[in-house]
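FW: tagging you since you asked about this chain on Friday. Here's the raw sequence from the shared folder, copied in full. Didn't touch anything.
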Amino acid sequence: MVVDARCPMWNALRHAGDVPVLLSYTPADSVWAQWINGSLQAAGHAVEMVPAAVDFAHRLAVALSGPDKVIILVSAEHRASDNEWARLPITKTLTVFCLDAVPAPAALRAATCKSLHDLDEEEALEVLLTTIQGPQNPFSRTS
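HL: got it, structure written out here
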């Protein structure tokens, strides 16, 4: 079954109940995407991986219209245009991770933007989890 992101039923289902973190990436960055997917799943998050395609801006805008957490991986390999980036609403649930020295697109700089460039795996994991989950209370019995 193919789910069309433009379908109102998909929108209603996407925003109902426990929705996964939506992870958008370009296929050239699939190694990073797989690592982030595995790290988030290990931390208890469901993740939906969405490779950037022709309609990626629309699909992300739909996800950002609700409470969904959305992660966009940005690198020199990402081929989105300034116009496509400008179509995305900036919400508190949007996080942009820069994977190399290329800065976040201008249209996304008001969102939460973090760089994973030049970090070792432990540092990158700390940035990822702190950004997505928020700071953890070191004195909590449940953390």
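FW: The chain has one domain: 26-131.
HL: agreed, and Helices lie at 8-14, 30-42, 56-64, 82-86, 121-133.
FW: great, closing this out.
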